[in-house]
Amino acid sequence: MVQTGGSATLPPPAIEVHGLTKQFRRAGQDPLRAVDGLDLTVPAGQIMAFLGPNGAGKTTTLDMVLGLTTPDAGTIRVAGMAPRAAVRAGKVSAVLQSGGLLADLTVVETVRLIASTFDNPRPVGEVVERAGLAELANRRVSKCSGGEQQRLRFALALLPDPEVLILDEPTAGMDVTARHEFWATMRADAAAGRTVLFATHYLEEADAFAERIVMVSAGRVVADGTTSEIRARGAGRTISVDAPEFDRDSWIGRTRSLRGVTRVDVRGRRVYIAASDTDSVALALLRDLGARNLEIAAPTLDSAFVALTGEHADAAETNGETDYTAGDMAEVPA
């Protein structure tokens, strides 16, 4: 516990990271710095989304927070403890993207096996029910879909009743219904005070569920705030209209020349227009260019993601985490 000015005490941050750095050696190339001096503090009880393009350093950071990978530099505390100590104490659990399941066991056998490794696990039936697996309890893991296996990993993560739950692409492979059911369960868990940190490529999940969003690119934090604050850092409001079929190229050219227009994207018949003053541009489109089916959309998390991480996106896709986990990289000794 952390002492405050009076007699009251506050719990330590759920996750506290300072100066975290990790690089990997690549065959025939300079080392890749996957995480570059990253600082992050997650208060107890917060729901935080960890976003970034492929190769931004998300998975490497989570691996270090879980004690699966050793940082080259920096410090990590989880529930006031070193990462591996926090895992052993059942303070932190994770739902990772793959691995950790035995194909020949049934769902309930898997949960019982892992439960036997903890001193005081939650009841097996309780976590199976909570993960939405009751009807699949006697199905072999090899017969479960990718989404069902993710729900099984979630059940295993709940066994020690952790204070901190880390989710790396938790709904990968789930259909829309299963994703909604999963997040309904997570909302209930968060309401009970559990800290949740999740990485996802489904931006609508971050928008709907997270209290706070941290975006990373090239191993560094590029944005940190509430969903509304992050959205406001995007491209602003966007106008969309149907382009006319007659003299279409000329019409698009006239649209580009309107005062205040900063970008015009053509996607099939639909034209998307960014402008410094969307109201005046919309008026000109309707009055002077005969625009039809005009809509003005508010800033989105998607536009903010592109604006804040796009600078590094191409390099990340080429040199990112998905490459150096394939076996052609090794850790660089600290």
Characterise this structure.
With 334 residues, the protein is of the alpha/beta class. The chain folds into two domains: 11-91 and 162-232 and 305-331, P-loop containing nucleotide triphosphate hydrolases (Rossmann fold); 238-297, Alpha-Beta Plaits (2-Layer Sandwich). 34% of the residues lie in helices and 28% in strands. It contains twelve helices and 16 strands. The chain has helices spanning 58-65, 83-88, 107-115, 124-130, 146-158, 176-191, 203-209, 227-232, 248-256, 278-288, 301-319, 321-324; strands spanning 2-3, 9-10, 15-26, 29-42, 47-51, 73-78, 92-95, 164-168, 195-199, 212-217, 220-225, 238-242, 261-267, 270-275, 292-297, 329-331. It has a six-stranded mixed sheet, with helices on both faces. Strands 3, 4, 6 and 16 form a four-stranded antiparallel sheet that branches. A four-stranded antiparallel sheet has the order 13-14-12-15, covered by helices on one side. Strand 3 (15-26) and strand 4 form a beta hairpin.
Give the tags.
Rossmann fold; Alpha-Beta Plaits; 2 domains; disordered C terminus
Beginning-to-end CA distance, first to last residue:
32 Å
Percent strand equals: 25-35%
Strand order of the largest sheet: 7-8-9-5-10-11
Q: Kindly report the name of the CATH homologous superfamily of the largest domain.
A: P-loop containing nucleotide triphosphate hydrolases
Q: How many β strands by DSSP?
A: 16
On the 0 to 100 scale, the average pLDDT is 85
CATH architecture of the largest domain: 3-Layer(aba) Sandwich
Largest sheet: 6 strands, mixed
Order of helices and strands: EEEEEHEHEHHHEHEHEEHEHEEHEHHE
CATH level 1 name of the largest domain = Alpha Beta
Give the overall shape, derived from the CA principal axes. Answer: elongated
Low-confidence regions: 311-334
Number of domains: 2
Q: Percent helix among the residues?
A: 25-40%
CATH domain topology of the largest domain? Rossmann fold
